[in-house]
Amino acid sequence: FADDNTFVDKKWGLQLCEALIPLKIKWFTETDLTVADDPVLLDAMRRAGCRQVLIGLESPTPAALGGIELRGDFKLKQYSRYQHAVETIQSHRITVNGCFVLGLDGHTPRVFDDVYEFAMRTGLYDVQITVMTAFPGTPLYDRLHAAGRLIEPDNWKLCTLFDVNYLPTDMTINDLRSGMRRLTTMLYNDQSTRQRRRKFFEQAAAHGNGLHSS
Description:
Structural class: alpha/beta
Number of helices: 8
Number of strands: 4
């Protein structure tokens, strides 16, 4: 389901799941960490066929989370419970695809190892990494443009989520590019993938929701 936060309204989300249960389909959607606070909803999601939720964690360290949202700093306030929330969701046999944005203001070259260590420690079933991207027409674009930090301000071809088109604050452009490549190799090799996914099956089994890994 292509919704940035399907379960922002928990009551509606529960009704959705109850309607889906008889259909016996498997599905994936996006949400936030607060679903971990609602065991009734998590159980309904599992029974309704939810196999994975994509959650924007953005940063494995709190320093870069302040100010990335237009208001509220929701993710910064949630940071201390990142690991527990991921483990809670996955214990209900729902895998988490944790998403991280590399090159946020405050990220140093250490961030690549921090993302890897967080993913391995929590057993994130899937991990998505992208580079901070300033799309024309967004507040981020306006802020970086005003600060003279955009390399090619009108080049849409570089708005890929993987190309670097701005000047980071706490690392060089080459640091960001090379770190992204290194982290990609670390995260997605066979050994790391098996280790992360094995932890998911262990989490499910520890809560009486055991599955057989393949």
